Amino acid sequence: MNPTILEWGIEVIQAIQQFRSPLLDSFFLAVTALGDEDIVLLLLPLFIWCIDFWQGMPIAVFAVLSGYLNFAIKDLVREPRPYILSPGINIIEYHGYGMPSGHAQVAVTIWGAVAAWLKRGWAWIAAVTLMVFIGFSRIYLGVHFPTQVFAGWALGALLLALYVSTHGDIGAWLARRSVKERLALALGLPLALGLLHPAPDPLALAGFLMGLSVGLVATAQWVDFSAGGPGWQRALRFVVGVIALLVIVEGLKLVFPAEGSALYALFRALRYALGGVWITFGGPACFRWLKLAPGAARVS
């Protein structure tokens, strides 16, 4: 990136931060959280367990692939964050490279995919509002240059257009494949992505994708699950399921190799893979066993 553009970006951030206040800090910290990895990890089960399993799954897979691509591009471009060039400009701490902004990209891909799913004008208005505010929050907080946010928006828009135009055809193609073919794809694609870019974050997303995909194949074959039911049932599914998900993804940190270990990245990917299996197979099977979910016609 041209140093002049980066210097301009720092000037923009400093100009915006002249209006800082505790209230604005709290507001934009809350807004930026809507693009955080942890929030997305909670949103995906909400869609899959409580709204529509088969409509939520494409969004989940799309979210993971979008995140993987973001990390891969960051590691390729290696553009620093603003506070590397201007220490003290950041309000919160984020590590890693900054181009493109993952939060800006996630805002477009995830919330755009949800709006495309709902097919309502108000959903698109809400989605675009979130895209703008989440992207702006990254500049206000000093963790991204404006150009990095613009790039995140642009990449997210490109991926969203690709998703909207192809996911129906891809779903129909997968429906015509045998169980063995689906399982081979569920294992093979994430494995290829993990080998292609074995850095910790992309590797964790590859593991998560593998878990989601393998669990989906298993549920389609053996679990008669629907995300319907009364409100209390959906809420209880979400609470019980998320507690178990956190035990898997976060609790296993206590027994798996710690960060800094040579095996940390591999076992982190395993934690996310197990979490993915829980979201698409373990949770639905458990909910049916506990009579917390109605049945539905299986997809085969």
Keywords:
single chain; 300 residues; mainly alpha; 2 domains
What can you tell me about this protein's structure?
It is a single chain. The protein has 300 residues and is mainly α. The protein folds into 2 domains: 9-176, no CATH class; 178-300, no CATH class. Helices cover 74% and strands 0% of the residues. It is built from 12 helices and no strands. It has helices at 3-17, 22-33, 37-50, 53-77, 82-85, 102-118, 121-140, 146-175, 179-196, 200-222, 231-249, 264-289. Helix 9 (179-196) packs antiparallel against helix 10 (200-222). The model has no long low-confidence stretch (mean pLDDT 90).
Q: What is this structure's SSE topology?
A:
Elements: H1 3-17, H2 22-33, H3 37-50, H4 53-77, H5 82-85, H6 102-118, H7 121-140, H8 146-175, H9 179-196, H10 200-222, H11 231-249, H12 264-289
Principal-axis shape = globular
- The figure for the number of domains is 2
Major β-sheet profile: none
Fraction of helical residues: over 70%
User: Could you name the ranges where pLDDT drops below 50 across 5 or more consecutive residues?
Assistant: none
Q: Indicate the structural class.
A: mainly alpha
Summed over residues and divided by their number, the pLDDT gives a mean of 90
Summed up, what is this model?
The chain is mostly helical. It folds into two domains: 9-176, no CATH class; 178-300, no CATH class. The chain has helices spanning 3-17, 22-33, 37-50, 53-77, 82-85, 102-118, 121-140, 146-175, 179-196, 200-222, 231-249, 264-289.
